[in-house]
Amino acid sequence: MSKISVAFFAAAVLYALIGMCLGIFMGTSGDHSLSPVHAHINLLGWATLALMGAFYGLAGRQTPTRLAWTNFGVSNLGNLISLPLLALLLQGNTSVVPIMAAGEILLVLGMVIFGVAVLTVGGKPTRV
């Protein structure tokens, strides 16, 4: 398996563990006010990064390596900015919105980069 695929899966596992811990915390405390953060960690961190890692693993040698690493960095940076700030926003701190918006733009950019990678791999002839 390629290093990029392993990196995506490793990051996905970290997000999954954070999401699980947050879920346990909310369940034991009875305070579910951070449920949107929990959902976004699981969707944008665990599920999305795992799917990207699976794609790059399946693409194998056709993976556009530089683009894939850019995808990894941009997507993770977007998560690391947006997810904690979403928690602060839900707790009433509206001053985080401009910075959070930058993180959200990075998340969209990460998905666009992934789309370009998919189209790049899809446009290459398959070797058997």
TrEMBL record:
Keywords: Membrane, Transmembrane, Transmembrane helix. The chain crosses the membrane at residues 7-27, 39-59, 71-90, 96-122. This is Cytochrome-c oxidase.
